[in-house]
Structure formats: C-alpha cells, structure tokens
Amino acid sequence: MENSYPLPRTARAMIARRPLIAKACSPEPTGVAGLDLIVRNFCLDDPGPVARAVKIAGRYGIKRHVLIPAFALCWAAGRGRELPALEQAGRVGVTGVVATALVSEVIKRNLCRSRPCDCGDAGEWGTEGARSFPSGHAGSAFAAATAVACAAGDRRIGAGVLVVAGVLAGGRIYADRHWTTDVIAGAALGTAVTALAAWWLGVRR
Known about the structure:
Blueprint (H helix, E strand, L loop, with lengths): L8 H14 L8 H14 L3 H13 L3 H17 L3 H28 L4 H4 L16 H17 L2 H20 L5 H21 L5
Helix pairs in contact: 3-8, 4-5, 5-7, 5-9, 7-8, 7-9
C-alpha cells in the first residue's frame, strides 16, 4: 500500500514547499531530521534521466508483490531441476521478503511517520494512517539481495546484488515517497530479517 490517505496533488505540492517558506526563520533541523531534509532538497532538483529511471525501477521492480512470486518460482524450479542454490535462494527469498513485510507493517502502524510528499516535515511522527517509516520497498529490495547473496556463496555476487538493491531503494527518495532514514531502516530490516531466515533455514554462506 503506497499511502493510506493520499492527499490531492495540489495540496501535497503546497505542503511539501511549506518548510522552505514558513520555517525559514526557525532554527535549522539538526541530526537525523537535518540529514533527511538536506537529502530531500537535493533530490527535489531535476534529477536527470538516470535518476528518473532508477525512480521508476525502484517503484515497480522491488515490490514484494513482484519479488515473492519470483522467488517462489525459483524455489519450485530449483527443486524440480535439482539446483540446490536456486532452491535455496527461492526458499530464503520468500521467507525473508514475507517476514520483512510483516515486521515492517507492525512498525509502520505503531510509529506512523508522515511521507515527505505529504508533509515536508522530517520530524512529523504519530500521524494516523501515515506509513513512511520504514520503507517497505527498501526492506523488500535488501531482503531479496540478502537471499541471493546467502545462496550464491560468492562475495562478489553478494556485493553486486546489495549495490543494486541500494540503488533501487534510493529511487524511493528521488520519488519523494520516503525520507533517507526510512530507506536506511528498511534496508537494515530486510537484511537482518533475511539473514536470520537464512540461518534458521540452514543456509550457509
């Protein structure tokens, strides 16, 4: 679910620009909120064709609705053709992505952080229906990457898929759907949950 209570496009645009005007005389945010705002302001500039492509790929390519069936097919194909690595990747991938989505949903419902495109305030938490923290897309991307890395047993492959996951997850920041810390938290969650799933399922790096 992208957003439980999406605002009209014009209202979102007005709210998103509000901090640059209404809060111009207030102290600059520091710490995590300051980092989130700095990165967001940078990404709101015209990102160019490469960043736009990453934004689109990050929206559709790392959705759990895509990854779960894909890993399920890998699991079935690996078992049917006696390919242990493919079977392991599929089994760990399904488990990791599903578990990450469940944990992420619990966190979202309890913390209720507002999305940057809806409020423009990195410190706005506790808004009913808000679902920004953590990023579910980032969680799914890193859950998938961790599953592949665990099954591959090759550090170069593992590093490669994690880099790809990071780039695609970063597209959610360019899309103004998540703060930087949402993506970092989602990445950490997906990696940790899937690594735990791999250990639990008996997969060895």
